Amino acid sequence: MFLTNQGILPPVDEAADKIKRAVKARDSYSLVLDKVKQSKVVANHHVESKQDGTVPQVEGAESPAMEGNDVALVPMPGAVVSSQVTTNIITPRKPSAMPKPKWHPPWKLYRVISGHLGWVRCVTVEPGNEWFATGSADRVIKVWELASGKLKVSLTGHISSVRGLAVSSRHPYLFSCGEDRQVKCWDLEYNKVIRHYHGHLSAVYSLSLHPTIDVLITAGRDSTARVWDMRTKANVHTLTGHTNTVASVISQTAEPQVITGSHDCTVRLWDLAAGKSIATLTNHKKSVRALIFHPTLYMFASASPDNIKQWKCPEGNFIQNLSGHNSIVNCLAVNPEGVLVSGADNGTLYCWDWRTGYNFQRLQAPVQPGSMDSESGIFAMTFDQSGSRLITTEADKTIKIYKEDETATEESHPIHWRPEILKRRKY
């Protein structure tokens, strides 16, 4: 189309081009150009004064003492730096001092318990630290001795997978929920169901007991969390707002008393008294499947395939990302020593230092003989009451118990801490 115009463009006007470049330079670099000119003048006068032995006055300089320092980009060697020079010199930015992580001994597998006939989906430890209970896809809840790993009792009553368990610290009650939409209260003195909580429209995936009041919170596939009066079985609140499955719910005494994580990629903080959402955290880009409170700090963590994120209560202020566990993270557990453990669908266990986010150990759970490699997922985990034993429930139908390696030292398992290669943490 423009072939005929090739070669007949007017010649470049060098004078106009020179003026254009000068205007652009003056517009962009006027301050720098002025500084360079002044520094050249000062340098020339400085050389002349050395040769003549006199101190000539420079145009624009107030006094000979300030001559070489006030206008020079870099003070001349040997010159006395005045107090005004600091305003002109750009001080280099100090690198952020990242705290070194605390050393934690590595964890090792020391017991594998078999007994369930399906995927083991949930686990809880009783407040006395004598036994723990697991729920499975075989519809059975089993109670095990923590010290020996022996089966104490099996509870049958659910007609589908058991997805959540919780033991009350003030009553002899065990609460369970499952994919059969049922929420049950078991009396552990008689090992029988004494209450049902009816109301969920679909599978119930998670439950939590309030630490101080007789309230039970359940959440599931109907995109709601429901608050129940433990005694009267009344549905006190229905917490609506999520647009997809609510995969995890946790509760604490302080505000926010209830926090939920959902497959709609959000975490919601709830006002339990009003039954309303007080904050929605939208930092995650993928489904939030696990939440955990820190036992001593006023913080909580949320897990998603993109990142594990730490938040500060009560507003839910973002603290930091724990990056590297690039898989579907199903569960979290944290002990009072500041060890955060995350378990994923591919059977990997990552151990983190809570304060710094340093990943100090990575474990691959061994698959039970006879199981397929695809059955290596970790569905739930919890520390016992002392924080010295980690119990995981897995897709190979086993329960695995980990403990700290007593033989490990800081010399045998050093901290490979290189903050200079850490990337900037993003939201």
Explained architecture:
It is a single chain. With 427 residues, this protein is mainly beta. The protein folds into two domains: 12-88, no CATH class; 107-406, Methylamine Dehydrogenase, Chain H (7 Propeller), CATH 2.130.10.10. It has helices spanning 14-52, 85-88; strands at 107-114, 120-125, 131-136, 140-145, 151-156, 162-167, 173-178, 183-187, 192-196, 204-209, 215-220, 225-229, 235-239, 246-251, 258-262, 267-271, 276-281, 290-293, 299-303, 308-312, 317-322, 329-334, 339-344, 348-353, 358-364, 378-383, 389-394, 398-404. It has a four-stranded antiparallel β-sheet, with no helix packed on it. A four-stranded antiparallel β-sheet has the order 2-3-4-5, with no helix packed on it. Strands 6-7-8-9 form a four-stranded antiparallel β-sheet, with no helix packed on it.
